[in-house]
Write a structure and sequence with these properties.
single chain, alpha+beta, five-stranded mixed β-sheet, four-stranded mixed β-sheet, 7 helices, globular
């Protein structure tokens, strides 16, 4: 009798396998929920990062009586002790990819005064190649967590000064200094003021997300910039039609001979690849970002992109953060990029 009872105390092999199978099913059911909760937390942090940019922009405007330009250079000279005057006469030399990004100008307003004090305002930055050794070192070695989306991967390099958040130049090809192209929240050659937002700050995109590149010339992803030499957007470089944008996108897709994999590498570099984007096409566009020439002109389509499911976070100029869907109406999204176009933006 006692021997029979003892033999029934252990699990049989079949019982053990059933228990293991049940545990495996429970884990399989639990993992997606855990991953979903983690992504929800990351999305919340990303949204908060953009909110901090919104507060910084408004504080900058209160202090300087204007928003920062999309690119600052030391020509014309910056006035004041570490306080560049944002209201300068627009000239051909008042911007450039060798200047400073909006991110640099906002450092004192984003709890980064220590980093701001180290920045050399008397020397150029110049795209991580030449310029002020101090500025290059700061960008390469200082990681600003508020500039990084936790859902996106890090730029695969020892350089940690990366960036996921870009200012909007509106539905135009970005690297154009003319007054006619000054239609978005930010521009290379002109400052803007909150009073300029005739469409309403709640209806104008100020910033959006950008995914970083893979730092590899051997592989290409749609978050990187394809170089389509000497081919521009036909008919219109401001608010192109769906057909024009599609034709440009198809041409870019057909040519992967060269591409720039350094997208998002720098928070200090004022260029469409690092700190600017345009609203010519909807978020996470099915075609790659594309520049029309490899000469450094940086004219092209640089859309908002993210690793979030379904859309991209955008900062509106009233300080609100909106997740704009990938399926947003083409024209509506372009209209959201202008600050005084008097267009209809309902239903986004």
């Amino acid at each position: 009798m006692s021997q029979a009872r003892a033999s029934r105390r252990g699990f049989t092999l079949i019982e053990l396998l059933v228990v293991i199978a049940i545990i495996a099913v429970l884990v399989a059911l639990l993992l997606p929920a855990v991953q979903s909760a983690r992504e929800a937390a990351r999305r919340s942090q990303c949204k908060n990062n953009l909110k901090q940019f919104g507060l910084a922009l408004h504080n900058y405007h209160d202090s300087m009586k204007a928003l920062p330009k999309a690119s600052y250079s030391v020509n014309p000279p910056l006035s004041g002790p570490r306080a560049p005057n944002p209201i300068v006469a627009p000239t051909a030399n008042s911007y450039g990819s060798s200047g400073f990004s909006v991110h640099v100008m906002l450092l004192p307003y984003m709890d980064e005064k220590g980093l701001w004090k180290q920045w050399n305002m008397d020397q150029l930055y110049t795209n991580n190649t030449v310029g002020s050794p101090t500025n290059l070192t700061l960008n390469n070695t200082v990681r600003v967590d508020g500039f990084l989306c936790p859902t996106d991967g890090r730029f695969p390099s020892a350089q940690v000064g990366n960036n996921n958040y870009c200012v909007s130049t509106g539905p135009q090809t970005t690297w154009v200094a003319s007054a006619a192209s000054n239609i978005g929240a930010f521009h290379l050659n002109y400052t803007t003021h909150l009073s300029d937002f005739r469409d309403g700050t709640a209806n104008t995109i100020g910033m959006g997300e950008r995914v970083v590149g893979d730092n590899s010339a051997a592989t290409f992803s749609y978050g990187e910039t394809n170089v389509l030499a000497l081919v521009g957007i036909t008919a219109s470089s401001i608010k192109p039609t769906v057909a024009e944008a599609e034709a440009y996108g198809l041409a870019c897709t057909a040519s992967y001979a060269t591409h720039r994999s350094a997208v998002g590498r720098e928070w200090a570099g004022p260029s469409p690849e690092h700190t600017m984007f345009n609203t010519m096409v909807p978020p996470n566009w099915k075609y790659p970002n594309c520049v029309a020439t490899n000469s450094g002109a940086n004219d092209g389509i640089f859309g908002a992109r993210s690793q979030h499911t379904g859309g991209v976070h955008h900062l509106m100029m009233d300080g609100a953060v909106r997740m704009i869907s990938n399926s947003v109406n083409f024209t509506t999204y372009q209209n959201l990029g202008t600050r005084a176009g008097k267009e209809t933006v309902a239903g986004f």
